[in-house]
Amino acid sequence: MIWSDNGYLLSKNKFGENSIISEFFTENHGKVSGILYGATSKKIRNYLQVGNKFYINYNSKNENKLGYFKIEIDKIFSPIFFENRKKLACIISTMNLIKLLTVDSQSNSKIFNLINTFYEFLLNDNWINNLVFWELELLKLLGYDLELKSIVTEEFVDNKKLYYVSNNKEKKYIPNFLIEENNLDIDFNQTFKGLKLVSDYLEKSILIPNNISFPKSRIDFLNSIKE
């Protein structure tokens, strides 16, 4: 099996002396793993950063055997943010999220295009606000639509409209901007609550039922933006 595609590097793990097992999310073939020989050479290692985009040639003898990649850099993203710890942590967390939640060799061009959109808003000042909506869209494309508007209840406290969801155990307030779909002039506390909401849903509804540990990269990202 031989094909060419474009893809974002999701992960890399050492394999032997000079090679790695790398994982890409590609435009036409979905998430694919393979061996990248000579990955420790100066020619490759400098741009072999998680989140960068590559031209990929893939070769495998059969579908049940791990193939190998030959790559060329398409667009460099991660090094642009080396001086911005929060955005760099966001890139690593986001790529790891896609790695965890997507299925091997299952094409999804909408998710690929969503990654393109991710880098577009990452350059903006209000990127964290955009990120919350982006993550909700990612979950929706993966079949995990929170459908917040249909499950919240309104109430007024001190003349302020609030939204919440409740069950027999707890009453959880939902940031207004997620219901009213307004990402302008949102204070950081509300944004952080939005990210925590996604994290809680991710852990309780997706990861725990599938015996997957909550990703450390997500914890590192949330901690970085609180500093």
Give a short synopsis of this structure.
The protein is α+β, with helices and mostly antiparallel strands and 227 residues long. 40% of the residues lie in helices and 27% in strands. The protein has helices at 42-45, 85-101, 109-122, 127-141, 148-151, 176-180, 188-207, 216-226; strands at 2-15, 19-26, 30-36, 53-59, 67-75, 153-157, 160-166, 171-174.
Number of helices: 8
Instruction: Give start-end ranges of low-pLDDT stretches.
Output: none
Order of helices and strands: EEEHEEHHHHEEEHHH
Largest sheet: 5 strands, mixed, barrel
Distance between the termini: 48 Å
> Strand tally, please?
8
Shape: elongated
Strand content range: 25-35%
Q: Strands across the major sheet, in which order? A: 1-2-3-5-4
| Average of per-residue pLDDT values | 90
Radius of gyration: 19 Å
Quick tags:
single chain, 227 residues, alpha+beta, OB fold (Dihydrolipoamide Acetyltransferase, E2P), 2 domains, 3-stranded antiparallel β-sheet, 27% strand, elongated
